[in-house]
Write a structure and sequence with these properties.
This protein is an alpha/beta fold and 359 residues long. The protein has 10 helices and 14 strands.
Length: 359
């Protein structure tokens, strides 16, 4: 039997007590209702995975401008709050804890996908040049509209409101998505941010928006209910953050400033600079979550064993195995992931993966 003993130690994360060191990583599933309210199956999907302890939801837009893909959920209207309340209640009933990930996609959007059908917004009017599936077929992401300085303050307010709405829905906290090529990450990347005001140019200026969002959310709901996700050097969404030294300089500054806010966790989507990851671990005063791109089953425990992480979030393994915790404890085989049903809607490939007791 594979030894994963370090994963089974309990852990205190802010206001919640976790039974082990596993968690559900955020994964887009494209199954919300047309108005952005979580669909009827969302409560079942998340509650099926409640044994993971900490469940970080799919990216959830804080505003109409924040939506990038079809059928993604929001957390900014009373209807959204009501929908997420059902999810939170179902997760809590099974003993789990729910953090809603706040994701503003910025330029990774298309007017066909948003409620208002307007041009996407971004730090600068530079297209991501990414292919995006729409109802009319594949289209390139358009040139976005540059946010004015005052509009940046409005977006910070949207994050604040979304965080308050998440707590009103019964969520245990939120995760700010500052990774994977989306709006906050775009401000960090020199090839997407050509601003000449206080939000562009220097390392400090490019980090300013991320820090201000984190500060606003922490002020609104408490730092002990606010996590943040970063992905240094991850070239998603057409971003290029420069060479290794440029990335290290940018993120050491950013993480150092965020550390002063005493947020409940730092979630790192890691692609290989272990020296940088070690510096995060040394600078960060609370929990560190690490998920590695392409990590296999025998690598799940590696970062916890090495002291680089406190919690190991699981993505595709948890998606296809609702009882992933039991499978790991008993060294049972995993279900295969059905890539064809990731984003197709309905129960197929969402809530119908078998458990060990229903195979």
């Amino acid at each position: 039997m594979t030894s994963l003993s370090s994963l089974w130690q309990p852990f205190t994360l802010g206001r919640i007590e976790l039974p082990h060191r596993l968690a559900l990583a955020p994964m887009t599933r494209n199954r919300a209702n047309p108005d952005g309210t979580p669909g009827d199956l969302a409560a079942e999907y998340y509650s099926q995975r409640a044994s993971l302890g900490l469940l970080i939801t799919e990216g959830t837009q804080p505003s109409e401008d924040g939506q990038g893909y079809p059928a993604t959920p929001g957390i900014y209207t009373p209807q959204h709050v009501a929908g997420w309340t059902k999810v939170a209640d179902a997760v809590h009933e099974k003993g789990g804890h729910l953090f809603i990930q706040l994701m503003h996609v910025g330029r990774i959007s298309h007017p066909d996908h948003t409620p208002h059908h307007r041009q996407p917004v971004a730090p600068s009017a530079i297209s991501a040049e990414q292919d995006m599936f729409t109802v009319e077929g594949s289209k390139k992401t358009p040139v976005p509209r540059e946010l004015s300085t005052s509009e940046i303050q409005d977006v910070i307010g949207e994050f604040r409101h979304a965080a308050a709405s998440a707590i009103a829905a019964g969520a245990d906290g939120v995760e700010i998505h500052a990774a994977n090529g989306y709006l906050l990450h775009q401000f960090l990347a020199p090839n997407a941010n050509h601003r000449t005001d206080e939000y562009g140019g220097s390392i400090e200026n490019r980090a300013r928006f991320v820090i201000e969002v984190a500060r606003a959310v922490a002020e609104e709901i408490g730092a002990d209910r606010t996590g943040i996700r970063i992905s240094p050097a991850f070239p998603l969404g057409g971003l290029d953050e420069g060479d290794a030294e440029a990335v290290r300089a940018q993120y050491r500054y950013l993480v150092g400033e965020l550390a002063k806010l005493n947020l409940v966790y730092l979630h790192v989507h890691h692609i290989g600079d272990d020296e940088l990851l070690t510096s995060f671990r040394e600078a960060w005063p609370t929990a560190v979550l690490v998920v590695r791109y392409g990590r296999e089953r025998d690598g799940i425990t590696a970062d916890v064993d090495a002291g680089l992480a406190d919690i190991a979030p699981l993505g595709r393994f948890a998606l296809s195995n609702p009882d992933i915790v039991e499978r790991l404890r008993t060294d049972a085989p995993f279900n295969d992931l059905d890539l064809a049903t990731l984003y197709t809607g309905g129960a197929n490939g969402y809530t119908d993966y078998p458990t060990l007791t229903h195979t």
